[in-house]
Fold:
Amino acid sequence: MSARCSSVLIVLLIAGCGDGGASSPPGGGGFGGPPLVVTGTTTVRSIADIVEAVGTTQANESVTITAKVTDSIRHVRFDDGDFVHEGEVLVELTNEEQTALLQEAEASKQDAQTQFDRLNDLLEQQSIPVSDVDEARARLSGARARYQALVARLDDRLIRAPFTGLLGFREVSAGTLITPGTPITTLDDISVIKLDFALPEVYLGVVHSGLSLTAASAAFPAQSFDAAVRTVGSRVNPTTRAVPVRAVIDNPDALLRPGMLMTVKLTTASRDALMVPETALLQRGMETFVYTVVDGKATMSRIELGIRRDGWAEAISGLTAGTEVVTEGVMKVRNGGPVRVAGDAGTE
Structure:
């Protein structure tokens, strides 16, 4: 057989297959009829505009405990990590000399008081001049002042907690000679935690004192912490164009500690938006489409997207509330073609 005859025979065979085969139904459904799809409904939902940032925690109050005077430690009354109350004695310094001087001052004060009382009685009897009583009163005032000064000096040798909080590590032992500035331990009030973070200056108009936010830490991945903005910084950083913000978190269980890294989610505004399931979206170039279903037929509609959140996308334009859109089987659907919706009568 010649090559020309072979070519003609192949063409005839192909043409015969096209004429005798089963034709596809409209809409690209193949031999099974119109494609089977799953649909969802557009709905109006309340959404919030959320700003995210990263912040660092600080104690509500924090101080390094030191001594006011130079002396040796007689007794340490705390251990690492103790919880102490305001005014509780943490360290006692040696005070033998000050105790002796205080006893001497107390004796002098009592003697001056006795002399004054005696002279004052004589003055009432007009037995002595007023000047003698005035001198006795001055001596009594001086004795009282010296006594109070020694009481204060003796009290300086009792190092107390300035506020209620949690102690850090102990840095000294009994017998240590300390001077003003020598660190003894740290004290942090962590009943309330300060959270410092920065926001771009574009949010300066919506951030204000009292605004609610949530914070999360990698140390507690399953837990979020409620907080509120306490202060917005008075200056914008000219380099980063960010404004510092301080929030506060109640910390009754002492879970949070100073220096932790936390992520912040700040809700600046809430609004209603028309939302469509993200699985319904069909991207073509820079444009977004969905298939709507009306009377068993699919129609391609172009929409404008807003924000996306939790499997839903905001449809700014192109859709109305309650519209039925194809969410599964999108790739099988053709514009204007018939579709079968799963769950409808006769589709099972």
Summary: The helical segments are 3-20, 96-124, 130-155. The two ends are 54 Å apart (CA to CA).
